[in-house]
Amino acid sequence: MKQSTRNLWLQTITGIMILILMMWQMRQPRIQELDSGYRITMGTFARVLVVASDKKTAEQCVKAAFETFDRVNAMMSDYDPNSLLSEVNRRAFAEPVKVDAALFEVLTAAVKYSRLSDGAFDITVGPVVQLWRKANQTGIAPEPQALTQAHQKVGYRHLLLDEDNQTVRFAVEGMLLDLGGIAKGYAIDKAIEVMRQQGALGGMVDIGGDLACFDRPVGGQPHWYIGLQDPDEEQRYLLRLKLNNHAAATSGDYRRFAVINDLKYSHIVNPASTQAADSLSSVTIIAPSAIQADALATAVSVLGPEKGMALIESIDQTVALLILSARPIKLQKTTGAANFIAD
Ligand code: AMP
Ligand code: MG
Fold first, then answer.
1. Which ligand has the shortest distance to the CA of 78?
2. 343 residues of the chain, pLDDT tens digit each
3. Ligand 2: distance of its center to the CA of 182 in Å?
């Protein structure tokens, strides 16, 4: 074969190979990343990140996640008089109230975390929370007598859950349930469930700083990276957490609080004393599920550093990072927490 013919053959074969390669690449699914941006839901801001093989799937995941938040909120908000929770609060002393499976699941989980934390986490704290919310509006601290009266209506043991009939009943008149310390975590777990069902390859769901992430991280990174906020400065991060298929929830007096007579009061209440929790600035719990992280972050805020650390050390696959109230800032963490710190 002449040299020129051989060159022509070589060029043709190379051309065909390049064409095959290009066609193969075009057939490969493009990874789509979609960021919903912050939107208002559940009384705070929520954001969803999705990694998917196509744009349509990513958009469906974001839509499904926000629908989940709205559904949970419509059922479990104690601010909304039309929610199922508000109906329970009105009727459950008079008669057993049949509730939706989702609400029953959250109530059952809440009681589990009450038992685990020896009552530090307690959704029956509603009557006391109401007094502190009113104090926040008026600037006048609740009367001790009013707190004592409210205290008599608090106690998770007075919350009677009938699993067979899926009903809720109150043993004490005037009880009020408040799911503010657990409903966000539940909504996050449910949103991740629906995103997986819709075909997401990975994602992150953040409601007011409580979050969970799953599978493939954005940007082809090995982990999901999350900043741990400085309680004294909103825009500053103390460190970066690296997560994969974990939830992280933060409770703190710097996020939501009341100011009464120039003093700052946490929105988290100690059910035993009726006083605002005050020994920790910030509590971050990393756990396998967001409902667990959320409930335990609230519980540890009440328990304080010693009892709180001991509780988290006793729970499998769950770690805590605490910032004490005293200044300068001091970070305290449980044994396994270092594994989640990126830098
Ligand atoms: P979080 O931000 O998850 O710590 O939840 C705080 C919210 O939970 C408060 O705004 C109250 O609505 C409610 N809450 C306050 N104290 C408690 C408590 N001891 N146990 C359960 N929920 C609480
Ligand atoms: Mg919580």
1. 1
2. 677 888 888 899 888 888 888 888 777 667 999 999 999 999 999 999 999 999 999 999 999 999 999 999 999 999 999 999 999 999 999 999 999 999 999 999 999 999 999 999 999 999 999 999 999 889 899 999 999 999 999 999 999 999 999 999 999 999 999 999 999 999 999 999 999 999 999 999 999 999 999 999 999 999 999 999 888 888 889 999 999 999 999 998 765 566 766 676 789 999 999 999 988 999 999 999 999 999 999 999 999 999 999 999 999 999 999 999 888 999 999 999 999 999 7
3. 5
Q: Which residue has the tokens 């043993």?
A: 171
Q: What is the CA radius of gyration of the chain?
A: 25
Reply yes or no on domain 93-170 having CATH 3.30.360.10.
no
Best residue for ligand 1 mutational test, from 76, 106, 298, 311 (most atoms within 8 Å of Cβ): 298
274 DSSP 8-state letter: -
337 C-alpha to ligand 1 centroid (Å): 24
User: Mapping DSSP to helix (H, G, I), strand (E, B) and coil, where does residue 265 land?
Assistant: strand
Q: Ligand 1: residues whose CB is within 6 Å? A: 121-123, 125, 129, 178, 180-181, 251, 267-269, 271, 294, 297-298, 301-302
Domain map (residue ranges) of the chain: 32-76+181-340, 93-170
Has this prediction a pTM greater than 0.85? yes
Cα(249) to centroid of ligand 2, in Å?
7
Fold of 32-76+181-340: T-fold (3.10.520)
**49: number of CA atoms within 13 Å, CB side?**
17
* 301 Cα–ligand 1 center, Å: 9
Residue owning the nearest CA to atom 12 of ligand 1:
180
Whether residue 66 contacts residue 149, with contact meaning beta carbons closer than 8 Å, is answered with no
Q: 228: Cβ–Cβ under 8 A, 6 or more apart, which residues?
A: 237, 238, 239, 240, 241, 250, 284, 321
Closest approach atom of ligand 1 to CA 301: 4
